[in-house]
Automatic annotation (TrEMBL):
Gene name, Swiss-Prot/TrEMBL: buk
GO CC annotation, single: cytoplasm
HAMAP family (UniProt xref): Butyrate_kinase
Record's catalysed reaction(s): butanoate + ATP = butanoyl phosphate + ADP
Signal peptide per UniProt: none
Gene3D superfamilies with a match to the protein in the record: 3.30.420.40
Name recorded for this polypeptide: Probable butyrate kinase
Domain of life, source organism: Bacteria
Keywords per UniProt: ATP-binding, Cytoplasm, Kinase, Nucleotide-binding, Transferase
Recorded coiled-coil stretches: none
PANTHER family registered for this protein in UniProt: ACETATE KINASE, BUTYRATE KINASE 2-RELATED
Organism encoding this protein: candidate division TA06 bacterium
Taxon lineage: Bacteria, Bacteria division TA06
Catalytic EC class: transferase
């Protein structure tokens, strides 16, 4: 069974072709800021990314008849259970009409998968989308009754690396309490109790600032800026989730580049250290969610390729005297392929998106 996995990210589109769960190849199609700046919203990038995927498959000699199933990264739908879903008309309608919790490039993952799946005459899937919701009610409450906290996080990679760490510990995931930090262009830091993510920051709203996103900001200062007349609502949203964080301070979202620059640039070092400081501080908050009962920590995502960042974070959590698993990059492609293999093989059923 050949499975094509498609993972649209903020600055790239990752593709993987698998024979069952064995990798045939993976590829990263990178997108320059100048190319992406032409598009106002993530949905506007659909034709652009479809074209690049189709071109790559043609150049690679992959025929549509060779593909048995396609899976895309899931987006910010209404709250869903963890699991694998068939892309149906209701899901497509919600994406195209904007019936979603927020804007994110993962929202078009299902449409990218559906485009290729229709050409191949096979099913399209998503699995463990960003909107997996396992919160307890107490985690939803904020200081204003008009607002509530949302469970939006990098569920796909976090669930996968959690299973990976559990295997390394010789335990079932449902026996463990874990704190997992997905550190990429967006950052999700979760408290996972017995396999369920009971709290997380929503990278678009709160938590540490990221390579592209602002994280938690001083409330009164942000209110004053919004009413200053300098920016429209749309411009503020773009500043907050696309051009904030490290990019706003240093003009780049490339952490590796900043690590190198920080060796001779004190300002770059300050911004880099501040990001790591805030990551560790958010991990500390999740320790309290689990009442200190933590079996292990997991650091994952693109930032983790940089030992400097890993060391700055670990030095602030070492007092817990617990294992720290470091899984650089994202295992999202293989996680998607495994989920489709399990469904197509009848190991567990696909869920219906309603």
């Amino acid at each position: 069974m050949k499975i094509l996995a498609i993972n649209p990210g903020a600055t790239s589109t990752k593709l993987g072709l698998y024979e069952d769960t064995k990798e045939i190849f993976t590829e990263v199609i990178r997108h320059k800021h100048e190319e992406l700046e032409k598009f106002d919203k993530p949905i506007d990038q659909l034709d652009y990314r479809n074209g690049l995927i189709e071109k790559f498959l043609m150049e690679k000699g992959i025929k549509y008849d060779d593909i048995d199933a396609v899976i895309g990264r899931g987006g910010l739908f209404h709250p869903l259970e963890s699991g694998t879903y068939i892309v149906n008309e209701k899901m497509i309608k919600d994406i195209k009409e904007g019936n979603l919790q927020d804007e994110h490039i993962s929202n078009i993952g299902a449409l990218l998968a559906k485009n290729i799946a229709d050409k191949a005459g096979v099913k399209a899937y998503i699995t463990d989308p960003v909107c997996v919701d396992e919160f307890e009610d107490v985690a939803r409450i904020t200081g204003l009754p008009e607002f509530h906290r949302k469970s939006l996080f990098h569920a796909l990679n976090i669930k996968y690396v959690s299973r990976k760490a559990a295997k390394a510990l010789g335990k079932d995931l449902k026996e463990l309490n874990l704190i997992v930090a997905h550190l990429g262009t967006g950052i999700s830091i979760v408290a996972q109790r017995k396999g369920r993510v009971i709290d997380t920051n929503n990278p678009n709203d709160e938590g540490p600032f990221c390579p592209q996103r602002v994280g938690t900001l001083p409330t009164t200062q942000i209110i004053k800026l919004c009413y200053s007349g300098k920016y429209t609502e749309r411009e503020m949203i773009i500043r907050a989730i696309k051009k904030g964080g490290m990019y706003a301070h240093l003009g780049t979202d490339n952490v590796g580049e900043v690590v190198q620059k920080s060796k001779s640039d004190t300002h770059a070092k300050l911004i880099l250290d501040a990001m790591c400081y805030n990551i560790a501080k958010t991990i500390g908050a999740q320790i309290t969610v689990l009442k200190g009962d933590v079996d292990a920590f997991i650091l994952t995502g693109g930032i983790v390729y940089n030992n400097y960042c890993v060391d700055r974070i670990k030095e602030r959590i070492i007092f817990m005297n617990k294992p720290v698993f470091v899984y650089p990059g994202e295992d999202e492609l293989i996680a998607m392929a495994e989920s489709v293999y399990n469904v197509e093989s009848g190991i567990y059923p696909a869920k219906d998106y309603e």
